[in-house]
Design a protein that fits this description.
SsuD_RutA_monooxygenase, alpha/beta, 9 helices
Length: about 300
């Protein structure tokens, strides 16, 4: 299994942005296969919707570094690791701006970008970017249309429900051809159908040390995705899966490796990454945790 880690983007890990580059370099040296970012904008004082089924927002989200800046930083100081997002909340951004940022990062990294997109869950964040949250699904679909056009045609032109891109010469294309792999998050039926129709893969989640059932968490949803893809005339075997492992502060390296081992053995997961936002207090501790996970998983 290829094992990556989230960059120090949130909470205590993000209070020293000058350590982002050091983390990226040293994680690559330790044997990490990939480095990842997420996308948080606000930690509302009185949230309408809490995080992960709760009625609160984790204090870690009170500090959030920009995902594009972190990916560019990691691209500049590494040579081998892939660089992924899980996830960029695509409806927050004009697609032309998003396309320019992603294309730049893929070019800077010589084709190492993995594009993970989603829609988010916070009404307050949508309010802050002045985008109607009820339109998020349609806006994600239209964003995918613009990204495909931006990456594969020239001149580029798009006229849709929410955005217009006048016919324009866009000579900078991704280093990855025809475009970087696009993964989508989400668990509701509509989101899984979108993966089947539009994406290169899906982004499930595990939260150790809580119970992890590879069949329920990965196998059954991927089976539905692949069955839908086949009905849509796509090759179901071409659809990939990358597992996000979000350990709590109570998780040990052994707990994390148990999830990784079971995900590979029981669900065929070949690529996963570990987000240490809740499990490490500073970058040095995060790097030590990463070393332990890679050692115990036999990935170094």
């Amino acid at each position: 299994m290829r094992i990556g880690f989230a960059l120090p983007q949130f909470g205590a890990l993000a209070h020293h942005p000058e350590d982002v580059a050091r983390f990226a370099r040293q994680a690559e040296e330790l044997g990490a296969a990939s480095l990842w970012v997420g996308d948080r904008l606000l930690a509302p004082v009185r949230p309408t919707v809490g995080y992960a089924g709760t009625d609160t927002i984790p204090p870690e989200f009170r500090v959030a570094l920009d995902p594009f800046a972190l990916l560019a930083t990691a691209a500049a100081v590494t040579e081998r690791v892939q660089l992924g997002s899980n996830v960029i909340n695509a409806p927050w951004y004009p697609p032309a701006v998003l396309a320019r940022s992603l294309t730049t990062i893929d070019a800077l990294s010589a084709g190492r970008l993995l594009v993970g997109l989603g829609t988010g869950w916070s009404p307050e964040e949508y309010e802050a970017v002045n985008v109607p949250m009820g339109e998020r699904g349609r806006r994600l679909d239209e964003t995918l249309d613009v990204l495909t056009a931006w990456w594969t045609t020239n001149p580029v032109e798009h006229r849709g429900e929410h955005w217009t891109v006048p016919a324009s010469h866009i000579d900078l294309k991704p280093a990855t051809r025809p475009h970087p792999p696009v993964y989508l998050g989400g668990f509701v039926p509509t989101a899984l159908r979108r993966v089947a129709r539009r994406a290169d893969g899906w982004l499930p989640i595990a939260v150790p040390p809580g119970p992890f059932d590879p069949e329920a968490a990965v196998v059954r949803p991927m089976r539905r995705i692949r069955e839908t893809a086949e009905r849509e005339g796509r090759d179901p075997a071409a659809l990939d899966v990358i597992l996000r492992v979000n350990p709590t502060s109570a998780a040990t390296a052994e707990d994390i490796v148990t999830v990784l081992t079971r995900a590979e053995a029981e669900a065929g997961v070949r690529h996963a990454f570990v987000d240490l936002t809740y499990a490490a207090k500073d970058v040095d501790q995060a790097l030590e945790q990463a070393r332990r996970v890679l050692d115990r998983a036999g990935a170094r």
